[in-house]
Amino acid sequence: TAETGSPYRVVLLGANGVGKTAFASIFAGAADSMDSDECELCGDEMCEKVIEVDGESAAVTLVHALFGDAYLLLYSITDRASFLRASELRIILRHFRPAQHTPIILVGNKCDLVRRREVSVSEGRACAAVFDCKFIETSAAMQHNVWEAFHGIVRQLRLRRDSK
Ligand code: GDP
């Protein structure tokens, strides 16, 4: 049974080059997420999709804006500056949304690039703990854990919905 009401608006946030376009491309269902032609499909447009999470359909729209219902806060594990940027963005989000408990998942992308790793798993996890949000490492290149991130955000939105 599909959930009624407007779709969940999920924002992809993070420094340049961390993989936001690659995430959007996987979400949009482009055949090859690393193909730049395909990525443009999702470049600046909204993508809306109905996805199934835990046996229940959820309408999700990816929005390119600061305000959404939930955030995937991306950094690249190969780029420490993008990790620091994610922390800054987390603080900014908290100022925008002090009262509400907006679902956020801290996403360490490019975990396939093991030899170029600059941010350890434990650092990512510790940062998420401080910021009181979930944490996941992904590889858009390998299509590893990307859907888990989207599903995780829908689960958190449902928890919030159900507790209202
Ligand atoms: P954006 O600026 O956040 O939208 O980043 P992009 O999605 O454009 O990605 C920047 C570059 O990193 C592109 O060359 C992507 O192909 C590459 N990239 C994105 N995700 C991954 C990943 O998980 N692993 C690897 N190895 N490269 C990735």
UniProtKB/TrEMBL annotation:
Interacts with Calmodulin. Transmembrane segments: none annotated. The lineage of its organism: Eukaryota, Metazoa, Chordata, Craniata, Vertebrata. One of its GO terms (cellular component) is plasma membrane. One of its GO terms (molecular function) is calcium channel regulator activity. Keywords: Calmodulin-binding, GTP-binding, Nucleotide-binding, Phosphoprotein. It comes from Mastacembelus armatus. This is GTP-binding protein. Belongs to the small GTPase superfamily. RGK family. The chain holds residues 76 to 239 of 291 of the full protein. The keyword Phosphoprotein applies. The keyword GTP-binding applies.
